[in-house]
């Protein structure tokens, strides 16, 4: 099934944030949308330029609860920073004409729960959520 | 037989280390070292017919490369800039102080070995003295829920000082290899510059490559492969593998942009295995007679390093504009010594000319690690308490809690 | 802060399932509670005996979307089975008198999003959710 | 120099393997082997002065132990029971068929080497013939969205047959070590029984230990340490390390209850690195003159193995009550040969008595892997299509899609 067909049948909107937002601002977005685990960073032109996951963000903001840190985590804990510095700028995206089954597994590898679908300009058309795929899968049983 | 020995060291070290940290609250490192000592030739090793020599060297070189890669990737340029002036100056001061005092002290005493110029041993020990291990300090901060500017400064400093230590140690080794002969200076420059250039190109390449590899498993192959390749090239072309691996990490992180999990997480999972190997190997090389004979050297090393870093970090922190509450206590918090220094000392063992010095260095560093990992934790606690950053009411129940909870688990 | 105090201030109920339930039944529970990522398996006496995470379940039910399998995953894909066979029977739990900061990091390690609090009989008293910890943390900023 | 070679093999192998799978759709394995061949002494190896011999042996033993552990942990007893009778009988039939036909064929031809009894080489090749590699088959099933009872049977069978292969190979090695002398039979029994007992006890222990270790990194140390220790003990006490490591995995999974992620995930992440090493090492040992001289042996091995497993799995599946659509096609789907067989062949290289046989076996298995990984995928597709389980309309766009998508990523 193509991404565009899936989106037509299972519309789902992405939660987005600006790269200049602070980490607590991003956290507030997650708390507003309790079912969401992935938010997308979009620049001023509306293009997707990054991804921020819930666990990554929780790890940063709750670092003081962890008794061991890698050096990388030590620096992150001390320095803080905006969403831009902690987002993953290597976002896996889908085009509307790609087949879900060809792309999906890369997302499972990356431990994300939603796949953003973008047009030729990297503007968000919607997201394909694992939860919806799961809903379809259990209807087979 | 080597396979058997490594298996024993990994498992027994892990068991002893975790039990020690569980029941006595000492860092795991201490248990690792003690197990290594237990299997050293003086004790069980000879009896069991175990022999580590053949495997140790390449394993140590690769393992040290892995750690150097992680040290290099600890921060981006932007993060360094925002770390704060006083943290940088305090770190530089701490490293300089420990280096100078240890060097001066050992030169003054005239500690040396036959094969090397008189400044050789003091220089190596001074370089090894610059390293601080983060684990015990982070554990104290967590245990007592420390919070405040001193805590922040300590966390930033322990993350950064290894990088300086790696640079210093690499330069020292290059100088020693040239034997202080002025005509050999181009070789020294090559050893450093080649490491920076090759490591830098490698970092750019590996960052590009890792973007194409989605699977964790494949990225692990690429990253470990790159580190091994670099260490192998360093051996073949005589440049500093340690510095090259650190540059690899630094440039990979730099070109990699903000998000570094992809480049470092797979390797971070190997770090504990590397440390178990380092410390148990170091324990293997521990020689009671050397340690007893040179007991006063060990004590001297400990004192000079402590004094140097307390004074150095005080000066550095004050110059950087830190308030006295930070400047007075920051040096005390950074005594624990550990994995990187031990790995460096083990690396010396690889070159025949350095063998005698290596035995001395390994014994001094191993004993000093045991000392600083226990005393260092107390000193860090004292410093944090004096600065009023500890939550004493809630701290210090760690061991007991842990024990009970584990009992609750499972079916 | 003790677990019991936290639960009093931030009450949150756990979603539970029986060990005999099928995987699609467990998936249906996740779809009913879109904000939840951890469900607890409780036996007939109401004692916690296992944990099932959303990603683990999605990995099992969407295995056909993955082009590579470990041998373990191959067998799981062929054999199926009830919740009992795929749950983690080694659940980390908290007692009401334990301090959150002492336990929390083990849960981050295990990649779960909620910590179950149980009484002496391993009966669920509630869960401590990372989202609530995060809410408290961002109020500090 | 060994460090350099391993670094080159890991990186170049990975690059070649992923590029090959990306642009030509061949399994990565093929690229790994070709890179190994490129650096073999006949080609670049001699020219670059690289030498693998010293490191290969312990690395291969440990790596094979890691893979055997994962094979042992593939299923619980309960899962095996529910796998279905026909899958079990078809697997047993397939393994038996390949073993018997290859053995009979090579005995009949009288293929042998000076140091071993006449049945030695045929027995080893027959044991190696029993192994099937899952990766290519799973990829075909994914690519064409195959679904149905044959697909299920194939998935179950490729997961299980390695375990049988490990047992057979271990017994064959024990028999060869005893040289067929009846008085040496107790040694054979010891080699097998000790492996089962020690591996079993180890599995119980490691499962207990892993419950106490919450951190991924520490569990990795414990699991890898246990495998290394077992392999080392096997060497010292002369029991089968391969079988012991598989038993370790099986019992750990058994005692571990349902959820196995804790015990296997950390090790699974190392599997790809192990395979890159196996295949590139095998390529290193590839000797064009041996392959050309024994070209007909390679072809014969391939034909006998294919015929044996097609007939054997047909008989097994029919006995187990499978419908003809499955029984007729299941053998065709399992041609691809791979990592485990290559690793086993490399292990032979370690013992001087087997060295000549090892060269022969490595060359036959390597060539046969190249052959079966390409032809095997076609055969699997043909079988699945004949059984009507392919979704042809949507399949087969894999390579193109992949290429384009990667271009889209990043900044």
UniProtKB/TrEMBL annotation, chains A, C:
<feature type="domain" description="CBS">
    <location>
        <begin position="87"/>
        <end position="141"/>
    </location>
</feature>
<feature type="domain" description="CBS">
    <location>
        <begin position="9"/>
        <end position="68"/>
    </location>
</feature>
<dbReference type="InterPro" id="IPR000644">
    <property type="entry name" value="CBS_dom"/>
</dbReference>
<dbReference type="InterPro" id="IPR051257">
    <property type="entry name" value="Diverse_CBS-Domain"/>
</dbReference>
<dbReference type="Pfam" id="PF00571">
    <property type="entry name" value="CBS"/>
</dbReference>
<keyword id="KW-0129">CBS domain</keyword>
<dbReference type="InterPro" id="IPR046342">
    <property type="entry name" value="CBS_dom_sf"/>
</dbReference>
<protein>
    <submittedName>
        <fullName>CBS domain-containing protein</fullName>
    </submittedName>
</protein>
From TrEMBL, chains B, D:
<protein>
    <recommendedName>
        <fullName>Cation/H+ exchanger transmembrane domain-containing protein</fullName>
    </recommendedName>
</protein>
<feature type="transmembrane region" description="Helical">
    <location>
        <begin position="55"/>
        <end position="75"/>
    </location>
</feature>
<feature type="transmembrane region" description="Helical">
    <location>
        <begin position="87"/>
        <end position="109"/>
    </location>
</feature>
<feature type="transmembrane region" description="Helical">
    <location>
        <begin position="153"/>
        <end position="178"/>
    </location>
</feature>
<dbReference type="Pfam" id="PF00999">
    <property type="entry name" value="Na_H_Exchanger"/>
</dbReference>
<dbReference type="GO" id="GO:0015297">
    <property type="term" value="F:antiporter activity"/>
</dbReference>
<keyword id="KW-0812">Transmembrane</keyword>
<keyword id="KW-0472">Membrane</keyword>
<dbReference type="GO" id="GO:0016020">
    <property type="term" value="C:membrane"/>
</dbReference>
<keyword id="KW-0406">Ion transport</keyword>
<keyword id="KW-1133">Transmembrane helix</keyword>
<feature type="transmembrane region" description="Helical">
    <location>
        <begin position="329"/>
        <end position="348"/>
    </location>
</feature>
<dbReference type="InterPro" id="IPR038770">
    <property type="entry name" value="Na+/solute_symporter_sf"/>
</dbReference>
<dbReference type="InterPro" id="IPR006153">
    <property type="entry name" value="Cation/H_exchanger_TM"/>
</dbReference>
<keyword id="KW-0813">Transport</keyword>
<dbReference type="GO" id="GO:1902600">
    <property type="term" value="P:proton transmembrane transport"/>
</dbReference>
<keyword id="KW-0050">Antiport</keyword>
<feature type="transmembrane region" description="Helical">
    <location>
        <begin position="121"/>
        <end position="141"/>
    </location>
</feature>
<feature type="transmembrane region" description="Helical">
    <location>
        <begin position="218"/>
        <end position="239"/>
    </location>
</feature>
<feature type="transmembrane region" description="Helical">
    <location>
        <begin position="360"/>
        <end position="384"/>
    </location>
</feature>
<feature type="transmembrane region" description="Helical">
    <location>
        <begin position="184"/>
        <end position="206"/>
    </location>
</feature>
<feature type="domain" description="Cation/H+ exchanger transmembrane">
    <location>
        <begin position="11"/>
        <end position="370"/>
    </location>
</feature>
